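Most newcomers find our protein records easier to grasp once they have seen one. To make this concrete, we reproduce a full record directly below:

…
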Amino acid sequence: MTTVTDPNVHNLAVKGTFDDCQDIVKALFGDREFNATHRLGAVNSINWARILAQTVYYFLSYFHIRRQVADPALEIQYVVPTGNFGDILAGYYAKRMGLPIGRLGVATNANDILARFWKNGAYEKVDSSGAAVTSGGAADESGVKETLSPAMDILVSSNFERLLWYLVYDTSEESDNAVRRSSAGATIADWMGKVKSDGRVQVPVEVLERARADFFAERVSDEETLETIRYYFDTAKYIADPHTVVGLHVARTVAPSNLGHVRQIVLSTAHPAKFSEAVTRALDGATAFNFERDVLPPEFKGLLERERRLIDVEGADVELVKKVIKKYATVE
């Protein structure tokens, strides 16, 4: 993105984590006066329209496999590499709309806040269970670990709040629908406030059980990521990026416990050319592999030598980002 030099495109690099950047974007949207002046919009999954579009993946792949497999008892299990929870939330919405699929698999890297939630119902930035931490780079002050699948190096997923709302709504004993909706919103606001102030919240058992009815979750280490890239290259000559591989590893892990009528679909979420370090490291010594020949699209060649344009923001501060927007934005 930094090689796009069009005059109306401005790339900002914030010194911080994905969570920091997402908090800044949410704060900007929450500033009604600033938002009205600059007419802000989001193209990531903060924007619900992005998630709505992603539901198509599930319907399309479902009908493709149904045409290929005649078994009336067929159950499709989706496994999705997950960071900000948008792609897999689209699967949840597809299921609520009536798509007859099995439980959705949440595949996380060493930033395993979601995997831990499905284990014990605690939504917490730092693991308080005392379990030994393996793999992933050293965590920063917020607890985020640097991994080989960086687009998933996220702790507080904006879209997980949306799922929590449904879980609270579905388990509510309120009979009045308007009260039920309002109460669910108030509960989520309270829970996310606790995550922000205390770093954790523990959800009621009935909410956790409702979550387990539609999802399961597993964690994948960097070592397992590298091993799985190599496994699929050796066995299928398929070169996967380190995010897709997180999903592939979880699918292989749970497959032996699936019933015979279950078929798996793993969503591939990135191109391996974007993650040369992980791919070349995993396939080091593979004589049949050449990164430039086997992975790199023609459009990527010479990309690193192109002119770059980047605006550095020296801290995770919404006011610093506002200054950049004010400087470059033009209201017509």
The mean pLDDT is 93.
